[in-house]
């Protein structure tokens, strides 16, 4: 008889764990957690336009944006109504199916909001369908190999000519959104081609150093390409920074 005591206790404990919580309640709690995880994914302490916050939420799997209010995360901030779903076993000792529910939650994001503190509250789902958004603006490509081939070669003992370097870059017919920067020091010409992905603090950039006997084309390390680090300037092309430790 004794060998049956432990399984029975386990079964009773499992059954007690469901008391007061219907499958729908458990599924709704899972939907709330999904909305809060979405908030964690799109949270940003920077000032962001409301449409960008909504767009970022809509890009997440299993998240639908039903409403967006506010102008930006500055001041009163942005309020998003997100629709998520949750699933739970249908109850009983040996559940054979699941219950899935959809719920809507309002979350608030502002520059004063702390991570995981979005004031998440249940709201009635709006009658409209999920909002849709245009694709994010594309970041123009910087053709490093074509740049490498186009740059003029300077023989040993010679001097790089900035006019010729500018002409080589112009021959690439780059997207107007790519910023071009040139700098001449002594017999060396430095080039920086820079593009900024929409909404990012990380620049895309390619540097080139045209010098007697050798040309160099490279992309700086990620840390140097962050805003304020100065790694995407022509000065870094003339005098390359040491790699970060």
Question: How would you summarize this macromolecular structure in one to three sentences?
Answer:
The chain is built from 6 helices and 8 strands; from the N terminus they run H-H-H-E-E-E-E-H-H-E-E-E-E-H.
Write down how many β-strands occur, each being a DSSP E stretch of 2 or more residues: 8
Helical run tally: 6
Please give the order of strands in the largest beta sheet: 1-2-3-4
Report Rg: 28 Å
Describe the global form. elongated
Q: Gap between N and C termini, in Å?
A: 67 Å
Q: Mean pLDDT across all residues, rounded? A: 90
Q: Which residues form runs of ≥5 with pLDDT under 50?
A: 1-18
Largest sheet: 4 strands, antiparallel
Q: How many domain regions?
A: 2
Kindly estimate the percentage of residues that lie in beta strands according to DSSP: 15-25%
Instruction: Write the element-wise H/E pattern from the N-terminal end onward.
Output: HHHEEEEHHEEEEH
Q: How much helical structure, as a percent, in the residues?
A: 25-40%
> Structural class, judged by helices and strands?
alpha+beta
Structure write-up:
By secondary structure, this protein is of the alpha+beta class. It folds into 2 domains: 22-123; 144-238, no CATH class. It is 26% helix and 25% strand. The chain contains 6 helices and 8 strands, in the order αααββββααββββα. It has helices at 5-17, 23-42, 50-58, 144-150, 162-170, 234-238; strands at 64-69, 78-89, 98-109, 121-123, 179-185, 188-195, 204-211, 214-218. The longest helix has 20 residues, at 23-42. The N and C termini lie far apart (67 Å).
